[in-house]
Specification:
With 368 residues, the chain is an alpha/beta fold. Helices cover 24% and strands 30% of the residues. The longest helix is centred in the first third of the chain and has 15 residues. The chain has 2 domains: 194 residues, 3-Layer(bba) Sandwich (FAD/NAD(P)-binding domain), CATH 3.50.50; 138 residues, D-Amino Acid Oxidase, subunit A, domain 2 (D-Amino Acid Oxidase, Chain A, domain 2). The strands form 4 sheets. Strands 6, 7, 8, 15, 16, 17, 18, 19 and 20 form a 9-stranded mixed beta sheet that branches. The protein contains 9 helices and 22 strands. It binds flavin-adenine dinucleotide. The site of flavin-adenine dinucleotide has 39 residues, from α1, β15 and β20.
Length: 368
């Protein structure tokens, strides 16, 4: 038997969940996720930072547009605040000072050096690190609560469904809409949303469409035990070239080498060498010594050629919508990006993007 819906969203990560949250108020939404847990891939593996100075101009605008939702979510959305104070400090070694200075004047940041820098992050090596740019408002995101808040709204709608263990294996466009087949069931809907993260281009191919040029890139992270404790109040520290970052995490340190290696879509694992590189960079920049790697993981951050998300209808069609390419910013931009996508799908919902934002996100810009 075939079940019919108004829209089928493929991919239950933060992208698919946030858009389902917007659309389920007015539409019969089916959210299909291949795994047993909706946040199993990139969404469940992030460093959980919210920063309005990270990423390109489009990302920064989307993050600012998302801030009010994070700081003041709708009543009943979550039990505890979505953001916790963290702060982010971009650091530069002496030879990197010019590239940090180029960011001087970034709204919401303060330039720090000498004693002020040491006072904020005492473990930084004074002979190595020359300066820092501090963003006090950067915060940790409770990603699980954000994701669950989106999904809960979907679950409460009697005419909407979240189906786990429902990998889409076939897509066919017919006169009555898309026929979507998973290993378990078949569905039909006039509108299909591609929120498949690292698999977005594979999904487009399954639909008989050209790829969007979306490249999954592996990013490694680890929790390590160090010789001296890092105070829980310390900001996230990020090298200006993003060659490593670290922040306190429940008495340990979360650490990443800032890697970006092209990797085919799939389940990915941390490579020991990447973790070793992160440890080496941490120890070169700080007085910390890593005693033990507690656990390590990796995830795929999926980028378009210009590193902005791809949000909009497939050129020339009104039945296939791209919602992909969130790169390393899919958590912090999720509220605003979902509102924009919802508006493009149904102007009664969401938030109209201005012309510049619409063009920056449009699939047409990729010139496939
Ligand atoms: C180490 C790391 C650190 C990061 N740090 C941050 C950070 O600090 N801040 C931030 O904002 N972002 C961060 N990110 C990026 C963020 O995690 C991603 O941008 C975001 O999670 C992407 O969400 P998504 O829903 O597009 O992808 P995913 O979470 O990967 O979801 C896509 C889903 O689609 C499903 N799927 C694919 N194909 C099919 C199919 N055929 N049928 C059914 N389901 C399918 C997959 O199973 C998957 O669950 C980080 C990422 C990593 C890896």
């Amino acid at each position: 038997m075939q079940h019919s819906f108004d829209v089928v969203i493929i991919g239950g990560g933060i992208a698919g969940a946030s858009l389902a949250y917007q659309l389920c108020r007015e539409h019969r939404v089916l959210l299909l996720e291949r795994e047993t847990q909706a946040g199993y891939h990139a969404t469940g593996r992030s460093a959980a930072l919210f920063s309005t100075t990270y990423g390109n101009d489009t990302i920064q605008t989307l993050s600012r547009m998302s801030e009010a939702f994070f700081r003041c979510p709708p009543p009943g959305f979550c039990a505890a605040p979505l953001l916790q104070p963290r702060g982010a400090l971009l650091i530069a070694r002496h030879e990197q000072r010019d590239s940090l200075a180029a960011r001087l004047g970034t709204p919401g940041t303060q330039w720090l050096e000498g004693a002020a820098l040491q006072e904020l992050v005492p473990v930084l090596r004074a002979d190595t690190i020359a300066a820092g740019l501090y963003e006090p408002q950067a915060s940790d995101v409770d990603v699980a609560s954000l994701h669950e808040g989106f999904l809960r709204a979907l679950r409460t709608r009697p005419d909407c469904r979240l189906c786990l263990e429902s990998g889409v294996v076939a897509l066919e466009s017919r006169a009555d809409g898309w026929h979507v087949r998973t290993e378990r069931a078949s569905y039909v809907a006039p509108l299909l949303v591609n929120a498949a993260g690292a698999w977005a281009d594979e999904l487009a191919a399954l639909a008989g469409l050209r790829p969007g040029g979306l490249l999954p890139k592996k990013r490694t992270a680890a929790i390590v035990a160090t010789n001296e404790p890092v105070p829980a109040s310390q900001p996230m520290v990020i090298d200006v070239a993003e060659s490593f970052y670290f922040k306190p995490d429940s008495g340990r340190v979360l650490l990443s080498p800032g890697d970006e290696s092209d990797t085919p879509p799939g389940d990915v694992w941390a490579d020991d060498l990447d973790v070793a590189v992160a440890v080496e960079r941490l120890e070169a920049a700080t007085t910390l010594r890593v005693q033990r790697v507690v656990r390590a993981w990796a995830g795929l951050r999926t980028f378009s050629a210009d590193r902005s998300p791809v949000v909009g209808f497939e050129p020339g069609r009104h039945d296939f919508f791209w919602f992909a390419g969130q790169g390393g910013y899919g958590i912090q931009t999720a509220p605003a990006l979902a509102r924009i996508a919802a508006y493009l799908l149904d102007p009664r919902l969401g938030e109209a993007p201005d012309a510049a934002m619409r063009a920056a996100l449009a699939p047409q810009r990729l010139g496939r």
